[in-house]
């Protein structure tokens, strides 16, 4: 949800900012802008659309060694040029970019900006106008910046230029992610390290409510009460090559293809010298002491959490509740005596999950985050962190992070079982390797799946996914994949539930994808398929080897029954990919979405 870059140094800032914005485009891509400062003043260029549109609008003559940039996912006001960032104060002296949501911007506007005409529909412009107002009343820029921030309710990551002080970028954050980067005679500010890895690998965290004054050779971090803060940089380990598409037409295809090797990597990362899976002792202790695990997540990560519940309960005997993060924070259930909170998030930046983390930490409960991004907000702020080791996931549709989440959840459950002295007849390491091989086999069959996708999704407006037990959760994820990138209305249902209402929607020819991976309920799901076929549905049965029958559309290699979600999702991911491709959709950047949902 919006990406921010800033550069102050001795080199031309324009290309550094544009390249950074291209890397941040996954956070929002409905409009973008940059502002460059030089001896003549500040120039702002913004465009509706993608960074490529902004690039075309930026002229050769635009120059400056200090600048800020922004890629937007609209929260206030439609995506257009006026609402695009950077925003400026009335006189043009202050120019800023913002990620987050200011909840009280209307109240602030009424209270302080009666005589100022606001030209955009954004909450952001109000910040720029307030700073100018306080400066006109006699405050220094730093004091006005700080005072304005103290009035804001909500979330923000801000980088601001002052035309009268071209040697400084003013920076602040609260709840929204923002980091500083250090180089030789330059500094950067950025929403995500990956967007500035082309200029540095040294980054410094900013904590909520801190203010930073950034010049080319000075980084002054101040606490809310004005105290100077010294903070050591960390090295970003992300590999620049991992961020490129390489030979693939889309990131999504690359990321689906990486799933087998990601599982193999997870096996290596979680085994000790004796080849046994292990976890840090503090995490084992936390798992051992918990009487119930509360999994908190959103979207695809929530779907992985539903599978995780099965693992913790079936493998380790620990009761689990899985909650959608945006619901949990404002409607907290009665908790057990010794709850343990497990936050699952690919990005580690999801604001809905973070608000729960803040609340449960305040209540003093133990927390673990399971994320793909080391150094992300959830990774930093949870008491313990485990990583997915999936490598950067750029496509908005999450694929390899989902399978990585399931693989790591199975390992955590397995280690917890061991810790609790539960004996389980499962060689999880071997079984995960078998899954990796099965995924590779499915990826090799992508042409067959492309044909299936054509047969079922080419002309439909809606589709259903059904399954029972764990297949139900895979159905939910399969439906989410299809709808988010192809815009086909798709829903995942428990096979037995359709006839309690939704079967009314089944019409002649409507595709119903049925998952059939669980021996005990295989006959039941086939029964559910018969019910929809009797009403005209076009069934697409995806079975695991050993459970197949003539007429099933896709059969994948047999894996352990607990680990089927890791594998069964792959043909559904591929079907969605091809459905989106054949419909001419932007596979990696579907409309209205952003990779990292950093606003509540
Ligand atoms: O980064 P997170 O895993 O916390 O993100 C949660 C959801 O926004 C995310 O999984 C979303 O549902 C994906 N676009 C699904 O493909």
Outline the secondary-structure elements.
Elements: E1 3-8, H1 13-24, E2 31-38, E3 41-48, H2 51-57, E4 66-72, E5 87-88, E6 94-99, H3 105-112, H4 124-136, H5 141-151, E7 156-162, E8 169-174, E9 179-183, E10 186-190, E11 202-205, E12 211-214, E13 219-222, E14 228-229, E15 234-235, H6 251-257, H7 259-270, H8 281-289, E16 292-297, H9 299-316, E17 320-324, H10 325-328, E18 339-345, H11 351-362, E19 367-371, H12 377-381, E20 384-387, H13 400-419, H14 428-444, H15 446-457, E21 462-467, H16 470-486, E22 489-494, E23 511-516, H17 522-533, E24 538-544, E25 554-556, H18 564-582
Parallel strand pairs: 16-17, 16-18, 18-19, 19-20, 21-22, 21-23, 23-24, 24-25
Antiparallel strand pairs: 1-4, 1-10, 2-3, 2-4, 5-6, 6-7, 7-8, 8-12, 9-10, 9-11, 11-15, 12-13, 13-14
The structure holds 5-amino-5-deoxy-1-O-phosphono-D-mannitol.
Residues 298-301, 345-347, 350, 353, 396-398, 480, 484, 597 line the site of 5-amino-5-deoxy-1-O-phosphono-D-mannitol.
Q: Top keywords for this entry?
A:
600 residues; 3 domains; 8-stranded antiparallel sheet; Rossmann fold; alpha/beta; binds 5-amino-5-deoxy-1-O-phosphono-D-mannitol; Glutamine Phosphoribosylpyrophosphate, subunit 1, domain 1; 7-stranded antiparallel sheet
Cα-based radius of gyration, to the nearest Å:
25 Å
Strand order of the largest sheet: 3-2-4-1-10-9-11-15
Architecture (CATH level 2) name of the largest domain: 4-Layer Sandwich
Count of helical regions: 18
Mean pLDDT: 95
Bound molecules: 5-amino-5-deoxy-1-O-phosphono-D-mannitol
Helical percent range?
25-40%
Strand percent estimate:
15-25%
Classify the fold: give the CATH topology of the largest domain. Answer: Glutamine Phosphoribosylpyrophosphate, subunit 1, domain 1
Instruction: Name the CATH superfamily classification of the largest domain.
Output: Aminohydrolase, N-terminal nucleophile (Ntn) domain
**Model regions low in confidence, pLDDT < 50 over at least 5 residues:** none
* Approximate shape: globular
Q: What structural class is derived from the secondary structure elements?
A: alpha/beta
- Classified by CATH, the class of the largest domain is Alpha Beta
Distance from first to last alpha carbon: 10 Å
Describe the biggest sheet?
Answer: 8 strands, antiparallel
Domain module count: 3
| Total strand segments | 25
């Amino acid at each position: 949800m919006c990406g921010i870059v800033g550069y102050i140094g001795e080199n031309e800032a324009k290309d550094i900012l544009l390249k950074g914005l291209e890397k941040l485009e996954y956070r929002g891509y409905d409009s973008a802008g940059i502002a460059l400062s030089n001896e003549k003043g500040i120039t702002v260029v913004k465009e509706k659309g993608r960074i490529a549109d902004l690039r075309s609008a930026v002229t050769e003559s635009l120059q400056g060694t200090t600048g800020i940039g922004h890629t937007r996912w609209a929260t206030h006001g439609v995506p257009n040029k006026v609402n695009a960032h950077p925003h400026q104060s009335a006189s043009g002296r202050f120019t800023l970019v913002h990620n987050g949501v200011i909840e009280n911007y209307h109240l602030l506007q009424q209270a302080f900006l009666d005589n100022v005409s606001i030209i955009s529909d954004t909450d952001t412009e109000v910040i720029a106008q307030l700073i100018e107002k306080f400066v006109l009343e006699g405050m220094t820029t730093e004091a006005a910046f700080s005072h304005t921030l103290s009035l804001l309710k909500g979330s923000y990551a801000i980088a601001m230029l002052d035309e009268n002080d071209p040697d400084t970028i003013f920076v602040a954050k609260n709840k929204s992610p923002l980091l500083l980067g250090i180089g030789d005679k330059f500094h950067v500010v950025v929403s995500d390290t990956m967007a500035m890895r082309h200029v540095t690998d040294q980054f410094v965290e900013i904590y909520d409510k801190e203010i930073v004054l950034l010049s080319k050779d000075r980084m002054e971090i101040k606490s809310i009460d004005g105290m100077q803060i010294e903070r050591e940089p960390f090295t970003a380990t992300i590999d620049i090559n991992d961020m490129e598409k390489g030979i693939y037409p889309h990131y999504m295809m690359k990321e689906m293809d990486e799933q087998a090797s990601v599982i193999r990597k997870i096996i290596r990362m979680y085994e000790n010298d004796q080849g046994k899976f292990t976890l840090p002792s503090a995490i084992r202790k936390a798992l051992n002491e918990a009487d119930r695990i509360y999994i908190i997540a959103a979207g695809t990560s929530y779907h992985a959490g539903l599978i995780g519940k099965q693992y913790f309960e079936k493998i380790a005997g620990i009761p689990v509740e899985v909650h959608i993060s945006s619901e949990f924070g404002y409607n907290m259930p009665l908790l057990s005596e010794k709850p343990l909170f497990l936050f699952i998030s690919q990005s580690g930046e999801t604001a809905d999950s973070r608000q729960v983390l803040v609340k449960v930490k305040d209540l003093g409960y133990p927390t673990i985050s399971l994320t793909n991004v080391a150094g992300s907000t959830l990774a930093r702020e949870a008491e313990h962190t485990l990583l997915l080791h999936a490598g950067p996931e750029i496509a908005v549709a999450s694929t390899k992070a989902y399978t990585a989440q399931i693989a790591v959840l199975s390992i955590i459950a397995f280690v917890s079982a061991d810790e609790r002295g539960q004996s389980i007849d499962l060689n999880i390491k071997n079984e995960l390797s078998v899954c990796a091989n099965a995924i590779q086999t499915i990826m090799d069959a992508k042409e067959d799946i492309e044909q299936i996708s054509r047969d079922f999704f080419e002309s439909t407006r809606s589709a259903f996914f059904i399954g029972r037990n764990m297949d139900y959760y895979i159905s939910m994820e399969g439906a989410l994949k299809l709808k988010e990138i192809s815009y086909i209305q798709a829903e995942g249902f428990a096979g037995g539930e359709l006839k309690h209402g939704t079967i009314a929607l089944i019409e002649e020819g409507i595709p119903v994808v049925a998952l059939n991976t669980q021996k005990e309920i295989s006959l039941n799901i086939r029964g559910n398929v018969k019910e929809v076929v009797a009403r005209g549905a076009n069934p697409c049965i995806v079975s695991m080897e050993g459970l197949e029958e003539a007429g099933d559309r896709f059969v994948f290699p047999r894996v352990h029954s607990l680990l089927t979600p890791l594998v069964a999702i792959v043909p559904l991911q591929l079907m969605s990919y091809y459905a989106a491709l054949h419909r001419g959709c932007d596979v990696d950047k579907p409309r209205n979405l952003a990779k990292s949902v950093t606003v509540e």
